[in-house]
Design a protein that fits this description.
Number of helices: 2
Strand order of the largest sheet: 1-2-3
Strand content: 15-25%
Helix content: 40-55%
Shape: elongated
Distance between the termini: 65 Å
Number of strands: 3
Radius of gyration: 21 Å
Structural class: alpha+beta
């Protein structure tokens, strides 16, 4: 039974692959920013252009973070009405 190629990588091959990935990331000039949204408590990851600091992508998207905030507000209103 043939083994998966990934399982057969030598330490040198793996190290070389990691070096190549690091070099590639440097060439695309991107930065990662990790934060926690204070209102929702969700972890937010932003991919930024290293030069302009423009947000290229956000995980989760801003719409999801906003929805989570709004749901939390509605939940607190519901619970305060019940008491």
């Amino acid at each position: 039974m043939p083994q998966n190629r990934d399982q057969n990588l030598s330490r040198d091959e793996l190290s070389s692959a990691v070096d190549n990935l690091n070099e590639y990331v440097q060439t695309i000039r991107r930065e990662l920013e990790f934060s926690i949204d204070e209102n929702s408590g969700r972890t937010v990851i932003k991919v930024l252009d290293a030069e302009t600091k423009e947000v290229i992508r956000q995980i989760p998207p801003e719409e999801v973070v906003s929805l989570s905030r709004n749901l939390g507000k509605q939940e607190s209103v519901i619970f305060s009405r019940e008491t």
